[in-house]
Amino acid sequence: MEEAGARERKRPREGDAAPSAAAGEAQYVYLPIADALKAPGARVCLFATVAEIGAAVRSRGTDFTLTLRIVDQSRAAGISVTFFADNTALLPCVRSSGDVISLHNVVITMHGEFFVTFNKKFSSFALFEGKVSTECSPYQTSMKYHGSKHDNEFLTQMRMWLVSHPPGLKDLELQLRSIKSDSTFDLVCKVLHVRETSSSEWIFYVWDGTDTPATEFQAMFLKEVFHLQKNIYWARFCNITCKQEFGIWKGVLQPSSRLRLLSHEDGSVVDRLKMYDSRIANQVHRRPMASLPEASDVADVEYETAGYTTLMESLIHEQVTHKFKSLVRVVAAYPCRASDLSLLSTGNYCLRLTLEDPTARIHAYVHKDDGAKFFGGFLTSEALIRKMNKLLGIPEDSEEGAPLTRNPPWIWCCLKSYRLDKKDPWGSRRYRIFGTEIRD
After folding, report:
1. How far, in Å, CA of 369 to CA of 434, rounded?
2. pLDDT digit string (tens) for 267-312?
């Protein structure tokens, strides 16, 4: 029995694969990952699922390299596989985490921890979809790959295991609309932009088709460097937390956080795109989620029948000068002293408001000519302060000693984009509020 077991566990080497007596095709002995780790330096064959997808980058030499993390029934923590190739087209292009990979003649290496090395001279791979209902043919194979008649059996077993053990922690997965301060969760999102701050920190600007909850304001991103900065891509941020700073949601990567790249065909990505397409097709649901079912009755606008435009749609509008109606919150105002507001209502001052919706924040001005219209007439200082407090979400009565917070209401607002300098129309663009009146 021991000799039979030893023969069964024998690791094939290049050229050693035993031919099938019937068809002359090669046979490969696939080892569980846990067993393969017992033989560092040996060439082994593995059949596993892809849990994490890295990005193709140039190595220190002339090659390109890519790292995947694979798991199987024997090792849920998985193991990293590093691929090398002369160009990126020869590297694995995994469509989705949860797809299955077959690896032939890869080497178990140990450098701090175990990982698998794919040698472009003698290793080979094949990629299969991880869904049970799909066919058994690989969607990508390397040039040296030769399958065996038992591959379909291993593939079926791996797919059945994946049904009850999908990659990722679905129970920890949240959407932006459901996040809470100091909670820990996974986020599947589109990374729209990456920038470095002056303090050498990295900030990711992300979106998942939903809106973050509207934040409260007090009355008075990220330290991981990532190698893809020029592309728009989908990713899963694992085990992250978030908090509010100055009314803005800020995600924070912990030492235990991970970042997984996702393809456009990943199931989580497809679900979010379908949800967004359904939302954007509905004129009501495309409004800020926090404003539903209806915006507040704080303001009246002249153009009731005008369509809804987000602030971002205005910012990327093909024309500098245009008019639109938007649904926004007033998150800040300058000036806010009663004496200065009194000057505004008499037509002698200018008020700057900071407006936000889920897509952007902008400054918009109430010019002196529009002051009386905006406030609904020439009011006393007390009446002006009362209207501004309502606009800014400052509660009328609050318990003494309690932290003062405010939650600005959502209001309809008419805006016009204009320029200050004809020679520099985009650089001198400003926004002005018109046709809008704050109710009593």
Report:
1. 10
2. 888 888 888 888 878 777 777 777 776 666 778 888 777 778 889 8
Which H or E run includes 434? strand 429-434
As given in the structure block, the two tokens for residue 265 are 């065909």
The strand ranges marked E within 335-426 are 351-357, 360-366, 405-406, 411-419
Burial (Cβ within 10 Å: 0-12, 13-18, ≥19) of residue 304: exposed
Helix, strand, coil % in the chain, rounded to nearest 5: 20, 35, 45
164 C-beta neighbours (distance < 10 Å), count: 6
Locate all alpha helices (DSSP H) within 81-150, ordered by sequence: none
Which ranges of 136-228 does DSSP label H, i.e. alpha helix?
151-164
On the 0-12 / 13-18 / 19+ scale of CB atoms within 10 A, 86 is: exposed
Provide the CB-side half-sphere exposure for 290 (13 A, CA). Answer: 22
Calpha distance 405→401 (Å, rounded): 12
Distance of alpha carbon 339 from alpha carbon 176, whole angstroms = 41
Residues of the chain predicted below pLDDT 70: 1-27, 112, 134, 167-172, 182, 198-201, 215-232, 246, 293-296, 336-349, 397-404
Quote the pLDDT of residue 12.
40
For tokens 């509660």, the residue is: 395
Q: What is the DSSP letter of 357?
A: E
Bridge partner list, 154: none
φ and ψ of 334, to 5 deg: -145, 125
With H, G, I as helix, E, B as strand and everything else as coil, classify residue 18.
coil
Angle between helix axes 338-345 and 381-392 (nearest 10 degrees) is 100
